[in-house]
Amino acid sequence: MSARLDPRFAALIRGALLALLLGGLVAPIARGEPRRVNADRVAAAGVRVLEGRHLRLFTDLPSEPAVDELPAVFDAAVPQWAAYFGVDESKTAAWQVQGYLIDDRATFAALDLMPEQNPDFANGFATVDELWLVEQPSDYYRRHLLLHEGTHAFMQRFLGGAGPGWYMEGTAELLGAHLWNPPTDVRRSKLQLAAFPATRDAVPMWGRVKTIRDAAAAGQSWPLDAVIELDNTRALGVEGYAWSWALAALLDGHPQFRDRFRALTAAAADPQFNRRFRAAYAADWGDLQAEWQAYAATLDYGYDFARMAMIHRQPTELASGSAQAAIRADRGWQSTGAVLLAGRTYRVTAAGRYVIAVDGDGPWPCEPGGVTLRWHAGRPLGELLAALRPVGADAEDEPAGPRDSLAAAADLSPIASFASPLPAGLGATITPTRDAVLYLRVNDSPAELADNAGELQATIMAIR
To answer: What is the DSSP pairing of strand 427-430 with strand 346-351?
Structure first.
């Protein structure tokens, strides 16, 4: 006869195994104060202490400005964490975390300063009162890791939990991405959390955008559901951190989704967080799926969430005749409102002049065929692109794509649409395999829409 393990103990064992597996995650919440450190003993081992209001940091790294300013970075983050998570700032006044910035693991192990729950963590680890950081290859990434783990500690301390894996790590990555401009007087230092990286040089060694772009180029972008399924029972690799960040950044940056995402901080300790998340977006889950597909395919530094946000229109079947739509040059995908019916053939034509870029010589005029002097994503800059968003109960599960009548069906991806748009240019013939709404946009970087202006006129005609 075999004994059955009490579910309460099974949960504790799973938590312990999780702590051993996940190098950058957080430990189960444990109230209490940080361990006491013998100042003379650590000093004799070459470990010094950096004091801040909210962070007491022990490190074996030599003194240099980018290291010594870390308590000031942490102190500047606390009121921003409080504002983001809706915590009364007065409640954080006495909060202090004890941290360990480690160059030589053996030194901290000999001093009994490694985390008992996870002594072999890879880069960072946090509990409610303590956090550990392994030295990183850039000043930016060192600060990022401090803010990432600090976000975990803050959420545990003031929210009572950090949510499932994608939300826990996505939020920590979101708020860890930052701008830091320290003047001579550190009391006036300026920190901005949740700063979407403008360039690769602004976030050296971080690598999240590259991971997403490499996956998209290889046709291996993660579906939205795959990201949401990242939970506290499996370890997150580099890809998991990147996709968790990408989802959190989309939800936090997109005007249609931002308010609901931030309201979910109140559910950080709820075991049913994902159920609440899905319920919050149930009314426009299809819109979120569509945005995710387009975003994952085009994500880049400086992504302009406001201008890339899709414009949706009330759909109307186009069984015969024609329809017109004005398409702005400074926006992402825009619905024409026309539902193209499966098996029928349509001709899309476009006309008009608009500005696709501005440089030292002035604005670049453009027509729907694009500017062949400069290309983006393998197509002429400013060229009109088309995509289909299928309609129907299961449309978002199996998105169909546009079919160019000149192309062989075998050469087309069965999952096309926003990830694989059709170059429409001045004109294109489309035969959809499913009823679908036609969306259009001009070809440009998602970071370079601000200098575009004007619009084109598109005509959609049913021809057979």
So the answer is: antiparallel
CA distance 32 to 149: 18
Q: Annotate 4-22 with three-state secondary structure.
A: CCCHHHHHHHHHHHHHHHC
Class (C level, CATH) for 1-303: mainly alpha
Q: Are strands 130-134 and 97-102 parallel, antiparallel or unpaired?
A: parallel
| C-beta of residue 88 within 8 angstroms of C-beta of residue 82 | yes
**pLDDT tens profile 30-54:** 455 788 999 999 999 999 999 999 9
Q: In angstroms, what CA-CA distances link 99 with 89, 146, 182? A: 21, 9, 21
Domain ranges of the chain: 1-303, 307-462
Per the CB < 8 A criterion, the answer to whether 165 and 244 are in contact is yes
Is the alpha carbon torsion for 71, 72, 73, 79 positive or negative?
Answer: positive
Residue type, 291: E
pTM assigned to the model: 0.87
Alpha carbons 322 and 155: distance in angstroms, whole number: 54
Contact 277, 268 (CB under 8 A): no
